[in-house]
Amino acid sequence: MKKTFLFSKENKKIISILNPIYWKTYTQFVGGCVRKAMEGKLTTDIDLATIYKPQEVRKILLKNNYKVLNLGIKYGSITTFFKNYRYEITSLRKDINPDGRHTKIKFTNNWIQDSLRRDFTINAIYCDRFGKVFDPVNGISDLKNKKINFIGNPDLRIKEDYLRILRFIRFSLEFNENIKDKKVLRIINKNIQFLKLISPERLFIELKKILELKNLESIKNKNYFKKILNKIYQLRFFDRLSRIKTSKLRLNYLQLLSILLVGYDKKHIFFSKQFRLSNKESDYLNFIFSQFKSLKNKSYDYKTIKQQIFFYKKQLTLDFLYFIFIATKKISYKNLKKYQLFIKKFKVPIFPISGDFLIRRGFKQGKSLGKRLNSLKKSWIENDFKLNLNKI
Prior knowledge:
Structural class: alpha+beta
């Protein structure tokens, strides 16, 4: 498996310095990067498993001029970056007494023991620097058949980390697989209440990964997945997703979140607080909501678009265009393309009147001048950015 991104110059460099003796295996690629390489996909998130302890990894990296972050060192992980790659290097370990959120760890030199503490078989495939694959839990077979199987007892795996419920849903969606195993369904239903123990930040990170799936729109045919995402995140407008495929729009996680969340009520406000969204993310949802609500009894037209560009800039105007196309039937696909082109070509108007202009017309400086200026600007905007200067 050498003709993949796994063996780029950058990846070969880091795995070489973590395997100093040619004929011994100290470090291997593992997890998502191996899975994606086998699927012919790309990723810049690279996971490595190593027999070195974290402080030894840190020392090797620093010696070779890598910047080191100790983000997950208590779980045996060291993070570093090189060019466009992000590397997470984790010492082989066993998890001791995990409680669904946290775990104590014990380091090991046993690759099979390390594989048995992982979540799914497809995430426990290792690949050494020569391209030789090590598959201790038959993950390759499940990958070929697009099956998401827990390693060992599903109930134990979920109790070790309740976030695995959402990871199971994410991978099932990615491979377009419905849950058919009633035993797994019962186990998920029994444990889903404990997701409240997971931090809001971790829950939102997992949601972002779900929203970034290329085939997210397939969830509209998977009622069980919709039910869980509604229960955890209050997402509800899954029927809107059908128009995304029609339009061939490429939307980011925040655009998709607004599509699934924003209605005429204020549930997005509670969502922002509950999952501790950044100010930028909260402001975005507020913008979509305010514009959507203002158009409840109005048509969406060129005048609306011009005003949005003037107040909110072109990118937000485009984002709202996509939202209104997907969330309602106010716009046809033909008009979507026309409005897109108009937004890109439209030149933002400049208000043609200044305080000096009014003073030359006989107005005196003071509060009344400011009020008159604001009144004229409001009329100019409402009149489609037109004013008869001779009538002032």
